[in-house]
Amino acid sequence: MISDRQRRVLRAVCDTLVPSFEHDDDPHGLFALSGAEAGTCQRVESLIAAIRDTRDRRRLLLLLDVLDSRMVNGLLSGRPQRFTAMDPRAREAVLRSWSDSRFPIRRAGFQALKRLVHVAFVAWPSENGSHPAWKAVGHPGPLPQPETTVPRLPELVVDADATLECDVVVVGSGAGGGVVAGVLAEAGHDVIVLEKGPNPDSRDLTQIEGDMLESLYLDSGLVMAQSGSMPILAGSCVGGGTTINYTSSFALPDSVRRQWDRRSGLDLFATERFTESIDRVQERVGVGTQWTTPGKRDELLERGCRQLGWHLDAIPRNVTDCKEGLECGFCSYGCRHGAKNSTARTYLRDAITRGARLVAQCEVDRMQLDGSRATGVTGTVRGPDGATHRLTVRAPTVVVAAGGLYTTAILERSGMRRGIAGRDLRLHPASAVLGIFPDRVEPWTGSLQTRYSDQFADLDGGYGVKLETAPAHFALVGSAFGWQSARQWRGDVAQLGHVGLVGILLRDRDPGRIVVGRDGHPRVHYELSRFDARHARRGVIEGARLLGSVGAKEVWTLQTPPVKERTDRAGWLERFTAAADARGYRRCRMSYISFHQMGGAAMGAEASRAVIDRTGAVYGLQGVYVADGSAFPDSSGVNPMITIMAVADHIARGIAREA
C-alpha cells in the first residue's frame, strides 16, 4: 500500500505540521505534544488506507513521492533537496509554498495532507481517553454514557450467501429511504431496507470524533471533491443523514418551490399536494421550535442580527424532549438520548413494526433487470463476524435512495447510459467566519442549531447565503482552520474556547457533476463558480460585521493563510475585506465543506433533461424509482432533510396507489 520511502515522507510531513514546541504557558501540554507522541503518522497511514477511491489514494501517495523529489523542490521552492533531508524550518517553508501556491493543484495537495494530519492529531484521544488540546480549551471530550440505553432497530442478520424476496426493496435508510419504507409498509407492502452503514445503539455513539466519522459517515468521512477543494460529509448508518445531522427542519421555501417547477417543467412542487407531503412528514418527525433554546454561539448570532436590524428567526427542529445544554452539541455524532426524531426513531421503526426487514452493512452493487424491468438488487453484506456474504433481493419494485453520490453510482453500475445520471449536482458549500471573544463561548456546547438569518439569502435571483451556526469540535478545527505555520495553528487551536462563529450556507446556482469510474466508484467534479463565490464573499464580510458588532476582539477567515483582523481600530472591516479578497474564495483558497448533496438524478418533465419523472420513476426503466436528494432539480437553499422526506412521501404514496 505505502512504500517505506513514502512512509518516511509522511512522517516528515507529520513532524512538520504537528511538532513539539517549547511554550511558556503550557500547563496541559498542548504545545509540547508532538504528532509522533500522539500516534498521528500511524493514524494518517490508516486513514489513507481507508480511502475507498483508489484514484484519490494513489494521488496522495504520488504527492508524497513528489514532495521528496530533489528536482521538484529545486524548481518550485529553490531547495534542491529531498523533503526528508531538510531541517524543520526548510520543510515548513516548502509546505508554506505549497499552501499558498499560484497553482491550484499544489494548494489542493497541501490541503489534503493538512486535513488528514490535523484531524488525526486532534480528533482521537492521545492518552487516558483525553487529549492536551481538549484539556487546554476546556473541552470535556467524550461524556459518560447515559444510564438508559437506546436500543438499535431489529435487523435481519445475514451470515451466509442468501436470496430474499419481497414486494419492494429500498436501498438506503435515510430521509428518503426511511420514509419510503414507512409509507409502503403502512400500505401493506412487504418491504426490505438495505443500508450501507452500521445499525448503532446509543452505546456505540462514543463521541470520539475520529471513531464516529469512520463509523457513521459515508466512506469514513473521507470523500473529497476531485479538485481537492471540498470535503463531503454524508450519513452512512441506519437513519442516514437524519441520524447525524443538525436537526434543522426547514420546509422548502415557496419561492424555491415555484422556481423548481419552472426549472423541471413539472406542476408539482408548488402544489397543495406537495404541501400535504411536507405537512405529513413534519408532523411525523415532530418538527417545532419548543426545544430551540440558544446556546452562547447562537445568542451571539441572535444579538448581532437584532443589533444590525437583520432578519432573524428560530430554526424548527425535529426533536422531542431534547436534553438542551446537556450534550446536544455532540449530536452530529448521533443522539444518545433518542431525542432526535431520525428515520430510525420514526419511519423505520414504523416499517419494522409492520413487518419490514432491515439489513445493515449491506452495500448494493447493482440492480437486476430483465430487459428494462427491475427484478431486484444484488449486494454484499458484512456479517457479525466481519465476513462478507453475497445477498440477492428479488423484488418487482426497486427504490434507490442511497444518497446524492451513490444513487448515481448504482444507476450507472446497473447499465444506465453514462452521463445521464450525475448531472446538476449541488453541494451547498458551507464555510464560516470566526470571532475571538474576551469571554468564553465554548462553541461545542448548546443545541445544534437554533437561530438563522435570511438577510442575504436572496442576492441574485433567489441565490445567496443563509447565516447559521453549528457546534465546533476538534474535527472542524483540524479540517477547516487556516494554516500559515505549525506554531500559528497550535496557537489558534488554544483559543477554541473563546471562538464564536457565523456559519455560511451557500445556495449554489452553478452545478458540478458525479462521474462514475470504471471501478464503479462515484467521483465528484465540482468547483465553486465565480457567481457563487461572490455570494460566499458577501457571507464572509457580513459574518465578520456581525461578530464585530457583538464584541469579538478579532475576526478570522478560514482561508490559508487566515486573515486575522483586530476590531478595535477604525476601518477594520475594510482592511479585513481587502485582505480576504486578496486571498480569494475559490480553488482551495478557503475552507468549505458539503453537508448536503443534491441532484444527480433530477426530477423533470423531459427524459432528455432529467433522470426521473414526476412519480420518481426512472425514465426508460420499469419498477425503478429514485427517492432521495438526488431528485432535486436545483439546490434547496435550506437544510434539505424535510424536502427529501416530502419528495419520498410523494413518491411512496404514488407507488402505493399504482400497486
Describe the 3D structure.
With 659 residues, the protein is an alpha/beta fold. The chain is built from 21 helices and 20 strands. The strands form six sheets. It has a five-stranded parallel β-sheet. Strands 14-15-12-18-19 form a five-stranded antiparallel β-sheet. A four-stranded mixed β-sheet has the order 1-10-9-8. α1 packs across α4. The longest helix is centred in the last third of the chain and has 20 residues, at 530-549. It is globular. The N and C termini lie far apart (50 Å). The model has no long low-confidence stretch (mean pLDDT 96).
Secondary-structure class:
alpha/beta
| Most strands sheet | 5 strands, parallel
* Amount of helix: 25-40%
Low-pLDDT segments, ≥5 res: none
In what range is the share of β-strand residues?
Answer: 5-15%
Q: Strand order within the widest sheet?
A: 7-3-2-11-20
Rg, nearest Å: 24 Å
Mean pLDDT score: 96
The total count of strands amounts to 20
The geometry reads as: globular
Span from first to last CA? 50 Å
- Counted by DSSP, the helix tally is 21
